[in-house]
Task: inverse folding
């Protein structure tokens, strides 16, 4: 079994080992230091793959985690190598590093890889970027030829599991960022955002991201109103929109559908009576205010007016919290899918042992031979028991002779890589796993 | 015939179950099943109605049971049209149970028919009945859409996004579907009433006789006319339109059943039991 010590006498199946740190174990200052650039990662892969104990290796580095996934023949040595590498590239004391690292081996490592790929281990559970980052890390490793049968299989399974988790659970369903939450709401009001006109009042990172997301939904004209007109013009250029003066806002209330406000103004920018005045002229078309400013720009009383909806930053944060709870509930279903996949992988991994494969191969052939003998004999009359036994003896001798060389060959395989591949091929060639 | 009625009821029941399950579990397959099963039910239902017509040459509104059954049929027909046009699958949670309830009610009332008059086979009579029933069914769905609108609008306004927020479509879509139902309902109701007038003229020699049914029909018609007028003139929409379509349907229900049971009039024979 994977975690057990291999029996003496033949090459042990090497162990899967994962060492890393993530947003839960290490503070951001430390993660910043250790995070590897692509060149660092390439160099790291090269140096690690040269140590004799490490047979396969992949390096994953994102802003929330750094992980080294290896297949090793000697776990103690490998752990040492990896720690040395991380402490060197990060410029961190081994002791400090020690306290934030986690080490998983065997089944636990497999489970960890599956969970990371499925975004179950992410800071923002369900965020989709991690899968792409893992694919990139895998691509780099394959380019550097530091992966082999086991990690190839493990990573492909991980990508497959991640896809299943994403499609079969609602883990990525609901918005967990302010701008996505606002868009989700807008879609519940307007159905489609296509052609809807947007007014951005003020500026600010969050508001700008929200406008960008809106623009991606093919909204109509984007107006930008800013106290300093020049700044407004700059922003408008970025969104291919139109800059307007601050005093034009009231007139624009007639025209636009979505208003995002984020000014530093201490007073409200849009008052209730201003909106009330235009409702009739707007023919009651809905109006959606997204107020990201603190203190608020949009008079909250506007929400009481018909066909008018006001959401401020706290409302949006409330939605995000709710959605996050939903994601965590869905994550529990994801864990179940991961569990299944771990069992499947383990079965394959165990099959890489020589003895079970040899036994399974012999069983398979003996079953076929015996069945065929019985089938043939049942067609004859006058067959005595001694005839029958003679035939079985002959068949057994044939099976032994045929299997002699393959068995010897498999048992004598010493190079790890060749062994894994050959065992895998053997099992496929004879369809042993069915 | 009995068997066909029970088949229709079972299919509507199954469809209702699918739609309710869809409301809770949100699995695409459920509403699709609900929709196909409802169509199958409608097919059987149509066969049963046509059979009566062919066998007797009379419009099957000779007693309360048949009248209810025809209402259920109209609801199913209009729902399938609306679902097709607006992709408003969630409306099935109203339409399927409504059709089912009407059918169950229909099966509970005696099905024997009293002496029928020749009038049941007149063209204007049939035109009047079918047109008014389809109009009423459209108004029933408008009422359903209105309720959904109010639920969704409340969720968004009060920022209490609960059970319905995720399950219901956007306000705009609900609003335009409700509007379409009202337009269709109004068109058919108007045509049906005109058919009724022509028929009255041919039978009683006058278009209008201040019968309670006629008066209440006019009231219903005026409520919906007001709703449409406001929408076209000043863009009345959303919450107010939704509330008015619910009120309109309440008035319509009274016109349809209330008048026959509480007031006297020349439509009594359709709801005998």
Result:
């Amino acid at each position: 079994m994977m975690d057990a010590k291999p029996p003496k006498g033949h090459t042990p199946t090497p162990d899967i080992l994962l060492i890393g740190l993530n947003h839960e174990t290490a503070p951001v200052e430390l993660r910043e230091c250790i995070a590897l650039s692509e060149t660092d990662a390439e160099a790291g892969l090269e140096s690690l793959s040269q140590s004799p104990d490490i047979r396969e290796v992949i390096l994953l580095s994102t802003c929330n985690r750094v992980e080294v996934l290896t297949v090793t023949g000697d776990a103690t040595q490998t752990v040492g190598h990896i720690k040395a590498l991380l402490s060197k590239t990060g410029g961190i004391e081994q002791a400090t590093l020690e306290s934030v690292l986690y080490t998983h081996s065997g089944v636990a490592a497999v489970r960890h890889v599956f969970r990371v790929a499925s975004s179950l281990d992410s800071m923002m559970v369900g965020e989709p970027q991690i899968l792409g980052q893992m694919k990139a890390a895998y691509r780099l490793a394959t380019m550097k030829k530091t992966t082999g049968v086991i990690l190839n299989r493990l990573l492909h399974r991980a990508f497959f599991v991640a896809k299943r988790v994403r499609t079969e659970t609602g883990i990525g369903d609901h918005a967990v960022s302010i701008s996505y939450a606002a868009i989700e709401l807008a879609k519940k009001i307007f159905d489609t955002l296509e052609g809807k006109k947007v007014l951005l009042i003020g500026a600010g990172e969050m508001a700008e991201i929200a406008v960008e997301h809106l623009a991606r939904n093919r909204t109509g004209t984007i107006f930008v109103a800013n106290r300093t007109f020049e700044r407004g013009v700059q922003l408008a250029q970025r969104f291919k929109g139109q800059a307007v003066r601050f005093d034009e806002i009231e007139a624009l209330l007639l025209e636009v559908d979505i208003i995002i406000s984020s000014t530093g103004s201490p007073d409200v920018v849009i008052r209730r009576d201003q909106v009330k005045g235009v409702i009739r002229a707007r023919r009651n078309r809905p109006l959606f205010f997204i107020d990201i400013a603190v203190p608020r720009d949009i008079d909250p009383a506007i929400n009481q007016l018909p066909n008018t909806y006001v959401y401020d930053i706290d409302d949006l944060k409330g939605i995000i919290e709710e959605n996050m709870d939903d994601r965590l509930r869905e994550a529990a279903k994801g864990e179940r899918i991961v569990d299944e996949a771990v069992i499947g992988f383990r079965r394959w991994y165990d099959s890489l042992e020589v003895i079970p494969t040899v036994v399974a191969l012999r069983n398979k052939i003996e079953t076929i031979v015996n069945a065929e003998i019985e089938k043939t004999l049942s067609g004859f009359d006058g067959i005595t028991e001694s005839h029958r036994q003679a035939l079985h003896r002959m068949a057994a001798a044939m099976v032994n002779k045929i299997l002699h060389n393959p068995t010897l060959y498999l048992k004598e395989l010493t190079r790890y890589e060749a062994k894994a591949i050959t065992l895998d091929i053997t099992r496929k060639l004879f369809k042993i796993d069915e | 015939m009995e068997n066909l009625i029970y088949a229709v009821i079972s299919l509507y029941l199954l469809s209702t179950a699918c739609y309710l399950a869809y409301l809770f579990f949100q699995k695409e397959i459920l509403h699709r099943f609900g929709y196909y099963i409802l169509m199958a039910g409608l097919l059987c239902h149509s066969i049963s109605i046509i059979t009566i017509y062919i066998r007797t040459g009379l419009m099957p509104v000779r007693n309360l049971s048949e009248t209810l059954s025809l209402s259920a049929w109209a609801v199913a027909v209009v729902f399938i049209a609306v679902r097709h046009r607006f992709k408003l699958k969630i409306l099935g949670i109203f339409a399927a149970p409504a059709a089912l309830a009407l059918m169950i009610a229909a099966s509970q009332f005696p099905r024997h028919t009293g002496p029928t008059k020749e009038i049941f086979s007149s063209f204007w009579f049939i035109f009047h009945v079918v047109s008014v029933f389809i109009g009423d069914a459209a108004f029933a769905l408008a009422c359903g859409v209105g309720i959904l609108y109010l639920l969704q609008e409340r969720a968004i306004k009060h920022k209490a996004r609960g059970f319905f927020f995720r399950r219901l479509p956007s306000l705009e879509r609900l609003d335009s579907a409700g509007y379409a139902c009202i337009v269709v309902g109004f068109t058919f109701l108007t045509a049906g009433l005109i058919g009724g007038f022509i028929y009255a003229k041919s039978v009683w020699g006058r278009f209008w006789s201040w019968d309670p049914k006629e008066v209440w029909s006019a009231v219903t018609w005026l409520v919906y006319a007001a709703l449409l007028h406001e929408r076209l003139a000043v863009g009345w929409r959303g919450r107010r339109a939704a509330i008015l379509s619910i009120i309109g349907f309440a008035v319509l229900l009274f016109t349809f059943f209330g008048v026959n049971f509480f007031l006297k009039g020349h439509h009594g024979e359709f709801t005998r039991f």
Summary: The radius of gyration of chain A is 32 Å. Chain A has 16 helices and ten strands.
